[in-house]
Fold:
Amino acid sequence: MAIVRESIHGQWSSRWVFILAATGSAVGLGNIWRFPYITGENGGGAFVLIYFVCVIAVGLPIMIGETVIGRRGRQSPVNSLKAIAADEGLSSNWQLLGWLGVLAGFLILSFYSVVAGWSVAYIFSVGAGTFTDATSQVSADEFKALTDSAPRLLWWHSLFMFMTVFVVARGVQGGLEQAVRWLMPALFLLLFGMVGYTMNVGDFNAALSYLFRADFSQVTADTILLALGQAFFSLSLGMGSIIVYGSYLPANTSIPRTIGLVALCDTGVAVLAGLAIFPLVFGFGLEPGSGPGLVFVTLTVAFGQMPGGQLVGALFFVLLAVAGWTSAISILEPIVAWLVEALRWSRHKASVIAGGAIWVLGVGSVLSFNEWADFQPFGKNFFDWSEFLSTSVMLPTGGLLVAVFVGWRMSRASTLTELGLSDGVIYGAWRFLVRFVAPLGVFVVFLNALGLV
Ligand code: TRP
Structure:
């Protein structure tokens, strides 16, 4: 049965804008900051290969499922789930899945903004030449000086939240769409420029064989779980970003084709980020497995030594900040859309209030690097708890429930119509993955996150 609703928030001007926006959501700190360092910590090629499998077998089917929910419901995730549940004669409790997303969004954006703030800070410090000829020790001290200072972190976190609220307050066409139209081409230009540059300056062959030569001797169950968690985070799944973007998708656009392209771009950018970063790491004799400090502490040493490194380095952090910005927008949007629907607030008011509340939570993450560093209930500080609860508990739960909802609870006819597919191999493959492979995969990750397997 075809169900035609209209979103009160507007609609993307074209399929291409949706592709830009969804790619903007997916491509973020997860691709450029997190993917390279987890790859580095897990031995390179084998991790990359497992990651690809996770994206195709679990991430992509769920991403398609989220888009189906959004476009069919045409509202915020909470209300889309409620509306579809009513259409299909299901329990209205399914809207709780939307609530989980709202909650996860608050938490994710609060710490995401703090890390994105570091990138903005580094545009200026790298650009000012702070790292010229810096040793690894100097670079590490520089990073520590930033995180030790609550006022500095607070300033960058505030600036980044302001940038995010500024865009979301302007609405779907006037804000989100304008932002991605300019920022995404800039992002791709910067990324290709970086790769072209590091190909010449760094050790490109070492990076290639590191990323693509699979050595499975280092692979453990943890590697697989980490790869699956990363696929989730990188594709923006489990909290409603893709649902809400799907709710603005023009009716006649093919979801499988469009989302396939978005997932491909997201994965491509992660690989390209690796190809921009690892040639420098190897070319300058640095350590690929240096963890979360890889781009801030390790890579900056290479920038400090290479010709033009001051400019290229600053541009690299512009790239990271832009990627984070278009993602942050997509984390705030589902919350704002819901506030506008539920409380009839203006978009402006909803963005400022939601952004303000998230900012306050983020202050907890800021302080956990300095003033509150010793406050660690159950071994995690405020930042670690926010990250753990949202990415390891809420996102997998959200993703699992999305898979169950579209795979088991929505009728076959509804998903078939919404996907615009005939009942053939492609639909069959999607349905199989979303009914069996995805829920099982996520369930295992979840148990692992809780320390049960
Ligand atoms: N995918 C983004 C990144 O890679 C972050 C992000 C945006 C996200 N929206 C999300 C993560 C929703 C989880 C859920 O940085």
Summary: The chain has one domain: 15-449.
